[in-house]
Design brief:
284 residues; alpha/beta; TIM Barrel
Length: 284
């Protein structure tokens, strides 16, 4: 059986040529190259089905394109929209419309939402929730210290004021850890971007101590919440290995902002590096 990392290393030149030749073609939205086919075949040989559960319907991406993307690439697609007070979909009526439109595009396409308000489960009726295949959340929006207005932590000025003050950083991390545990204890299916750190602290991976990683992992396992392996960043191999040992389930997510392709190279690498098998992935 081939080594996934060996396939990736040998494919670099081929991928560059594919990108150069296909940049203007509609197929460039999809990883329809020989390398992806070979990697998917290797995963299939191991019994692993690759599904992208973090595929947003935004930035030009539509449910129809998600279905086409699946057919073209062999990577199974989903259709997901953001849900929250600051997003287009917030009411039950709009959520029903989205789910219906996605299923018209492809009845087999899993339909989900990314919830951004921490009281989301009070806003969505039980009947409407039954129309969804999954609910995804991340920890990237957290209320300020007074517990008031939610702050989008990827934006400037929404984290601790002095990243050089170690006491302030540790105090922020303790508050953030409580927020992470709150999110993973909600009735969600998938926790996206686990171990996320905002830009001012993104190099402080030491903040995610073994104890903090285990606390988040154990809560996810207890609540049957799958942990996402993001195609670009989070989490790292240490977290994935600890989560696997604890019996956690994983998903894969590209978290697109447009309809253009993002590389899945990191996904392949994490599968190989962390020894993931078919039993480690979420099945719905």
């Amino acid at each position: 059986m081939k080594n996934i990392r060996t396939i990736l290393a040998a494919a670099t030149a081929g991928l560059a040529l594919f990108a150069a030749q296909g940049a203007d073609a509609p197929e460039f939205r999809y990883p329809k190259d020989g390398v992806t086919a070979e990697l998917l075949a290797e995963c299939k040989a191991r019994g692993i089905t690759i599904t992208d559960w973090h595929l947003h319907i935004r930035g030009g991406m539509t449910p129809e394109m998600a279905a086409e993307r699946e057919q073209a690439s062999g990577i199974l697609s989903s259709a997901m929209e953001n849900h929250g007070r600051e997003w287009e979909i917030f009411t039950n009526e709009r959520l029903v419309e989205f789910a219906a439109a996605a299923r018209r595009a492809n009845p087999k396409l899993p339909v989900g939402i990314q919830v951004n308000d921490r009281d989301w489960f009070k806003q969505i009726s039980p009947e409407v929730r039954q129309q969804l295949d999954y609910v995804l959340a991340d920890t990237m929006i957290m209320p300020d210290e007074e517990g008031g207005e939610p702050k989008k932590m990827w934006l400037p000025g929404n984290v601790t004021d002095d990243v050089n003050d170690e006491a302030a950083v540790q105090a922020w991390m303790e508050r953030y850890m409580k927020h992470c545990l709150q999110v993973v204890n909600e009735p969600i299916t998938i926790l996206a971007n686990p171990t996320y750190l905002p830009p001012p602290l993104e190099k402080r991976t030491d903040l995610w101590t073994p104890e903090r990683m285990d606390a988040l992992i154990n809560a996810a396992v207890k609540n049957n919440v799958a942990l996402e392996i993001n195609a670009e960043t989070y989490p790292g191999p240490e977290f994935i290995k600890r989560a696997k040992k604890a019996g956690a389930k994983f998903t894969i997510g590209v978290n697109n902002f447009t309809d253009n392709i993002r590389s899945y190279d990191r996904v392949w690498d994490m599968i190989e590096q962390c020894g993931l098998t078919a039993d480690d992935f979420l099945r719905l």
